[in-house]
Predict the structure.
Amino acid sequence: MNTTHNNAYGIEDTRARKAHQGGMLRPAVVVCVLTLSGIQAEATVILNDTFSDGDHTTQGLPASAHWYSGGPGPNMSVGSDGLTFRDANSGKATALSYFLPTELKVGESLTLSFDYKFAQTATGDNDFMFGLFNSGGEFATKDSINFKKLADYTGYAASGVFGLDPSTEGRAHIEVRDNADADLLAISDYTVGSRHVQSGGATPGEYYTASMQISRTAGGITVESRIGNTEMVQTYSSAMFTKFDTVGIFSNGDTGSFTLDNVKLDYAGAPEPSALFAISLFGMAVFGKMFGRKAKEFFLRTA
């Protein structure tokens, strides 16, 4: 029996022994990979305005932001359902808010999200637009601002319609403002992305969610957006903008009124190098204890 037992791990069974070690090694690799993937990027809430204070003119981030309206007269009010704005005179319902300038490095992202509802459908091009911009220091300082004077803003926006999209080419898209000229709301001052998406239907009076995430990667900028049930993505290796300090949410006014609530902006940083290094050392220590020098060499090759 001793001979039989020894032969199980003898010279003639080298392949079986290696397979056995490999079987032990693979779960350990999985454990380390899962540990690495579990490292969360550092997250910071920049803005989280629920309008529960009944006010839209107090700048006290992250819980409260000062929202500036556009148009010839006052058109904003805060109620139990959020911030409602309208402008029947100019046909625009617009809101801007500012936050501390944030510049994205590789591996970092900004994510804007909010709930919205509208009083009646509007299916024209760019009836609904929102985005993140860099003001270049050209801030609004009062309500009833003329958005045509905000000429130097750069950044990214997403557009859609309030209702069923009647077009065949799709009216939901992502655009980059890389041709600053006169009007922040003029689509002619944006370069519309190549991917157009057919928007799904939306019902007046019901809340929907819109979002935009701007991520910087080694290859450029990726912009992902959602309007209701419509998802879009656009990547940029040129026309790259990485600095932002402005949230803009715009309606063409044809909906009668537009209400937004639960406006949130999050920043996510890249994982700290020290955390990754610590996990690497942990993996080397575990593998070294289990398998010795060969395992360490394996870990270094696959790290």
User: Anything to note?
Assistant: The radius of gyration is 26 Å. The chain has two domains: 2-39+272-302, 43-268. Helices lie at 2-7, 14-37, 273-291, 293-302. Residues 1-20, 27-38, 274-284, 298-303 have pLDDT under 50 and may be disordered.
